[in-house]
Amino acid sequence: MVTSTTTINKWYALLIILTAPLLYVIDIFIVNIAIPTIKNSLHATDGEVQLVVAAYLLGSACFLIIGGRAGDYLGKKKVFFWGMCWFTLTSCLCGICQTPTQLNIARFFQGISSAFMVTQSISLIQVLFPVADERAKAIGWYGISLSIAAIIGQMLGGYLSATHFVITGWRLIFFINLPVGAAAMWAIWRYLPETEKATQVQFDYPGAVVLTGALGCLIYSITEGREQGWPWWSFLLMMVSFVLLYIFVYIQKKKQISNQGPLINLQLFKLPAFNIGLLAVLFHFMLHTAYLLMMAVFLQNGMGISALACGACFIPHALLFMLSSVVASRLLVTYGKRVLQVGLLIILVAFLLHIFYSSSGQNPLWTVLFIALYGLGNGLVLPFLLNIVLDNVSTGDAGAASGIFSTFQQTASGLGISIIGGIFFAVLESKQHPEIYVAALRSGLIAGIICLMMVAWMLYRLPAIAARR
């Protein structure tokens, strides 16, 4: 139920709501394209630029669930407003950073603020569109906005990185959030309805802090440890991360027994099919996020094209992703997981073409074709992994399972940047010759193919587990 004295057409309200996922996704793709420029401007190491992407995803991952609960406790409109406010502020902080460390810290807090605003956008769609048919249309527009955001982010990342106005061009990729965020805040406060507050909802502050520490130690030890030749402290941080994960599980079990509102419902992990689905999510998002980063670096530094041209190279990828997603949504009911398996096969073909036919001196159109083919296959897989995860989960647990899915997705993306991206950058640092970027890309793609095989194996195992259940 909503409470508000201001009435507004709910479809106009949807436009306001969609600013959150739009800005969130834009800030992933826009930074991916700008990574080479940021590295040169701030004199950053490869590990530090990896963290520019990973820190954003990590901050979002650790606060997605608690951000959703904040809306239940304080009111979705209020949390949406302040989430947008802090996202706008931290974006500006990113734009004025003078060192890689400052930028990584600001990106981490930008990721945290995004978790609070994005979760409210999903919740408000459920509140404003109680009728199933209308809700389906609204969620459809939500998905379309993500694809549009990918195109906008890639184009703006290329254009702004190549722009030198009053300040360095890459800083504009963060300052551009200021007018959009300010307009969105005004519209949220003026037009969106407030929701009832559920005061019985409890926050799991210890769980959020411990999970953040565990994932932060793991990702930082992998990225910076590789950068500095695996010193002793990197292995110590890995051990600390595993200890913290154990403590996190203990806290969740204790809170679940005492009914104190754990951050994650561990009972869901007793469902074999749910675990298999999450592993598919883990490996697919690892390869997906790392692939986008590697291609942005390869196109600009390896093939010598401009940041603007690099952004344009990803437009066919985004368009084919949208097209195949629409087609797959109609085929999924009839053919089920076979649709995803066909998508994995197309991705495999794209990766193999990259490996065998990529070279620094080749025509960039061939590389664009390979990237577009990847988008075609990925559109059959990525949007429907949530269906795989929720397929064997009861309706009552769907909300908790969705929160775990989102957290797992963001964490996997951060690990992909750290592990597969780490392999890519490690090869770049190992030798100095004209084809080093080709060798690095091939090494990263081989790691991606291993992840791809794991996703295929998880999908293959799902029917047998479902039958046993």
Molecular structure report:
- By secondary structure, the chain is mostly helical.
- The chain folds into three domains: 8-200, Growth Hormone, Chain: A (Up-down Bundle); 205-262; 265-469, Growth Hormone, Chain: A, CATH 1.20.1250.
- It is built from 18 helices and two strands.
- A two-stranded antiparallel ribbon has the order 1-2.
- Helix 4 (76-96) packs antiparallel against helix 8 (177-191) and helix 6 runs antiparallel to helix 13 (315-335).
- The longest helix is centred in the last third of the chain and has 33 residues, at 398-430.
- The two termini are 37 Å apart.
- Residues 3-7 and 464-469 have low confidence and may be disordered.
Any key phrases for this structure?
disordered N terminus, mainly alpha, 2 strands, single chain, Growth Hormone, Chain: A, 3 domains
Strand content: under 5%
CATH architecture of the largest domain: Up-down Bundle
The domain tally reads 3
Order of helices and strands: EHHHHHHHHEHHHHHHHHHH
| Spatial sequence of strands, sheet with the most strands | 1-2
Helix content: over 70%
* Poorly predicted ranges: 3-7, 464-469
The span between the termini is: 37 Å
Q: Quick one: CATH superfamily of the largest domain?
A: MFS general substrate transporter like domains
CATH class of the largest domain: Mainly Alpha
Number of strands: 2
Please outline what is shown here.
It contains 18 helices and two strands. With 469 residues, the protein is mostly helical. The protein has three domains: 8-200, MFS general substrate transporter like domains (Growth Hormone, Chain: A, Up-down Bundle); 205-262; 265-469, MFS general substrate transporter like domains (Growth Hormone, Chain: A, Up-down Bundle), CATH 1.20.1250.
